[in-house]
Amino acid sequence: MNLLLIGNYTPDRQRSMLQYEQLLVEAAEGLGWQVECWHPTVRYGSKVNTLSGLGKLAGYFDKYVLTPLTFRRRWARLTASEQQPDFVHIVDHSNAPYAPYFQGVPVLVTCHDLIAVRRARGEFAPACPRSRITARWQQHWILNALKRVPCPGFVSQASKNDFIRLTGREEPAAGWPILFPASAQPLEVVPTDVAAARLSAAALKIRPPFIHHHGGATWYKNREAVIDVFLKCRIQMPKLSLVLSGGKLSSPQQARLEQSDALEAVVDCGAVTTEVLSALYSTASVFLFPSWYEGFGWPPVEAQACGCPVVASNAGSLAEVLDDSAALFEPGDIEGMSEAVMGLIQNSQQSRALIEKGFKNAERFTFEQLQSDYKTWGLAACGPLATTK
């Protein structure tokens, strides 16, 4: 089998999508497939911030003007030389508009979540305002492309449900596959002394007990709830700390913590290495993940693999991904999450029970399972499923 993977625009720095792409490369190569990766053309967005302002417009020009020209030209060369792959896999559904450029072979598209599409439609208000007109146009275009992709696949039932509702498509009798991602990082329980040495080497002064939250700083990660829960728990346990990794705190969040005299009890790590992340997961008292929505949700499963009990929201995919292995609440249930966090910190038996459930749950998301599912999907796409409209 020869596979062409279409990855994401690199200046956008979508780390999770780059990690997912690498997982697929490793899975396909492990199956003995030949793999080639293409990415959208980078010219005008190479030295600017493509996530805002004029830099975003530069990125749009690269992705939606230059890339179609590049992909069509490269595909024409493959077709002329009869070197087309057996199938094309678009790693992220946001690139579904590229699907028509790959004529003559099955095109697979992974749908991770439809948060941006739903936000453009105003579905997350008032938690998040509707996106701007340019973003609404972009998401409308992506949604129309998803209505026509021949072979969609999903990272959870939640993402599949959103796809069916928003595209109006009917799932065929053969079904559309769900491929749960494996962990994108080699994470495991780190002994206390080793974890302490790693954190010290990273100049992080962290002492238990602490709540840990890992993820980007985007609105749907619901960091306001993380702060709410921390402040509420700190009333009962003044020595409790909060450790954040991934995206940095916003200025309003910092101001709020400062006004509550709690800023000194917060360690804002920013981006961390896999080694440091393992150490944080392994030494945290509780991992808190109150997202408004997730397409899959790597961090809580990663925390479970490192022996940390999880308190999370039940939104999006999290209920199916975590099931009874975590304490689950509505994203706005600050009281319930606070009580659960304090219960896990103060009751070691309760914490150990949830840690054991977490270990078992994390075993569901192995690389071997992903590879097996990927093989099934690839082979099916080259058969009858490829003609499904």
Short structural description:
The chain is built from 14 helices and 11 strands. It is of the alpha/beta class and 389 residues long.
Textual characterization of the structure:
The chain folds into two domains: 2-182 and 367-387, Rossmann fold; 192-362, 3-Layer(aba) Sandwich (Rossmann fold), CATH 3.40.50.2000. It is an alpha/beta fold and 389 residues long. Helix 6 packs across helix 9 and helix 10 packs across helix 13 (348-362). Helices cover 45% and strands 13% of the residues. It has a six-stranded parallel β-sheet with strand order 8-7-6-9-10-11, with helices on both faces.
Labels describing this entry:
single chain; 389 residues; alpha/beta; Rossmann fold; six-stranded parallel beta sheet; five-stranded parallel beta sheet; 14 helices; 11 strands; disordered C terminus
What is the CA-CA span between the terminal residues?
Answer: 23 Å
- Biggest sheet strand order reads 8-7-6-9-10-11
Secondary-structure content class: alpha/beta
The CATH superfamily of the largest domain is known as Glycogen Phosphorylase B
* CATH C-level name of the largest domain: Alpha Beta
Mean pLDDT: 93
SSE ordering: EHEHEEHHEHHEHEHEHEHEHEHHH
- Helix share of residues? 40-55%
Secondary structure blueprint with pairings:
Elements: E1 2-6, H1 15-30, E2 34-38, H2 53-80, E3 87-90, E4 107-111, H3 115-120, H4 133-146, E5 151-154, H5 157-167, H6 192-201, E6 210-215, H7 223-236, E7 241-246, H8 251-259, E8 266-270, H9 274-283, E9 286-289, H10 298-305, E10 310-313, H11 318-322, E11 327-329, H12 334-346, H13 348-362, H14 367-381
Parallel strand pairs: 1-2, 1-3, 3-4, 4-5, 6-7, 6-9, 7-8, 9-10, 10-11
Helix pairs in contact: 1-14, 6-9, 7-12, 10-13, 12-13
